[in-house]
Write a structure and sequence with these properties.
- With 395 residues, the chain is α/β, with parallel strands linked by helices.
- The chain has one domain (4-8, 49-375): 4-Layer Sandwich (Purple Acid Phosphatase, chain A, domain 2), CATH 3.60.21.
- Helices cover 22% and strands 21% of the residues.
- It has 10 helices and 17 strands.
- It has helices spanning 4-7, 82-99, 116-119, 129-135, 153-163, 223-226, 230-235, 256-266, 342-348, 358-371, and strands at residues 18-20, 28-30, 53-58, 102-107, 142-144, 171-172, 176-180, 183-186, 191-195, 201-208, 218-220, 242-248, 272-276, 282-285, 291-296, 303-308, 333-338.
- It has a 6-stranded mixed sheet with strand order 6-5-4-3-16-17, with helices on one face.
- It starts with a helix and ends in a 24-residue tail after the last helix.
- Residues 316-335, 375-395 are annotated as: Disordered.
- Residues 316-326 have a biased composition (Gly residues).
- Residues 54-281 form the Calcineurin-like phosphoesterase domain.
- It comes from Athelia psychrophila.
């Protein structure tokens, strides 16, 4: 099989007939989808609630691009791989366009360290370098750095040198720098300002908790110091339609209030969405009636969904375009935690089969297998070593 880098150009091809295996036999395999898990999966009990602004959220994926493959529950609930997720995102983007609303894709960090897909790099390689090439194939609007991007300087430098230039302005490291010989520069961008497909103005930040275990040549500025920086005050000076604060910080009991309060001091009523991570849990917190905070689990066991409606007086042209209002009352938010599997994805996408990007999905799947040592079985435990299991569902 070609190496993962050789797979990437194929993502641009419109049609392919067969997939050739790099072994000693002259044969081909038809490009076929993986089978569903043998265990029956239950679709969500209710449809997603769409708003004027909708967000698909991932965090703490830690290399779980191939999904969870064990047959014992609850693993099948999380059996969707990154190819399935890519198809899901494409369908949801199309649905958003049909509905005339906005949909953003956001990640809150920790792409590194966790599976053979990221950690099984060859001698002389860099952790997650090749795996991140597949992450880049998804249309993320905002990405934030995590602490696992900072334990090894070469990993941080690789993100700065090779990852960030491929998504200019979208990888946000508001308080994380590379610092060499006294000179500091952000790993990514300090903030991002952009306009959505429906004309909404967004100001986004990417914040890491007060992490102290980072490698030499990297620095993490305390959050309380960051919000006093001149660049930060300038970035938040103009009122957008919504602030999107992504970051690798728990949405409960951490430093988000410092960032939130700094924004609220300037803009008491502008909507704020916070998308956190790090503690590997599903969590939700509301700091006031015009904001919502969401944390979406770990290991691609959870895909978060958050939607919000703007003030009616802020809508124009049938709900599109930037039209700031003087609204002060509570806004309407909804949130869901989706189990990443094809049944959930298809149901959430209005029962559209995940076929639109079958080729992309297949390449993501096969490339991930190759990165994980060609799918070889190195050992098999005598039993399932899960400490606790329960049948969980989309909530």
């Amino acid at each position: 099989m070609p190496g993962p880098r050789a797979l990437l150009p194929l993502l641009l091809l419109p049609i392919v007939q067969v997939w050739a295996c790099g072994d000693d036999h002259d044969h081909t395999h038809a490009l076929q989808r993986r089978a569903y898990p043998t265990a029956p999966l239950t679709p969500p009990t209710r449809a997603l609630e769409w708003g004027d602004l909708n967000i698909i959220h991932t965090t703490d994926s830690h290399g779980w691009l191939l999904g969870h493959q064990k047959p014992s529950f609850p693993e099948p609930n999380y059996s969707g791989d990154f190819g399935d997720f890519s198809s899901f995102v494409t369908h949801m983007k199309a649905l958003a366009a049909e509905k005339g609303v906005d949909l953003l894709l956001v990640d809150s960090g920790d792409l590194h360290d966790g599976t053979g897909v990221t950690d099984g790099y060859p001698a002389g390689g860099v952790d997650a370098h090749d795996a991140n090439e597949f992450v880049l194939k998804l249309p993320y609007d905002i990405m934030a750095i995590g602490n696992h991007e900072l334990y090894i300087y070469n990993n941080t430098l690789d993100m700065h040198t090779n990852f960030v230039p491929q998504i200019p302005g979208r990888y946000l490291t508001s308080n994380v720098n590379i610092t060499v010989n006294g000179a500091s520069r952000p790993v990514g961008s300090l903030f991002r300002k952009f306009t959505t497909a429906r004309g909404r103005k967004v100001t986004a930040l990417g914040v890491l908790f007060d992490f102290t275990g980072n490698d030499a040549n990297t620095t993490v500025q305390p959050v309380a110091s960051m919000v006093a920086e001149p660049w930060f005050l300038a970035a938040i000076a103009e009122a957008p339609d919504v602030f999107v604060l992504a970051g690798h910080m728990p949405v409960s009991e951490d430093n988000w209030p410092a960032v939130f309060d700094a924004v609220r001091k300037v803009h008491p009523y502008t909507p704020i969405v916070i998308l956190g991570g790090h503690t590997h849990i599903r969590d939700c917190n509301q700091l006031d009636g015009r904001s919502m905070s969401l944390e979406s689990g770990r290991y691609m066991e959870t895909v978060g969904w958050l939607s919000m409606d703007f003030d009616k007086s802020a809508k124009k042209g049938g709900g599109s375009g930037s039209g700031k209002s003087n609204g002060t009352g509570p806004l309407n938010f909804s949130r869901r935690y989706l189990d990443p599997n094809r049944v959930t994805f298809e149901s959430s996408a209005n029962d559209r089969p995940m076929l639109l990007h079958q080729f992309v999905e297949r390449l993501l799947h096969l490339g991930g297998i190759e990165l994980a040592s060609n799918g070889k079985t190195w050992s098999t435990p005598a039993r399932d070593n899960a400490l606790s299991k329960g049948e969980t569902g989309t909530t």
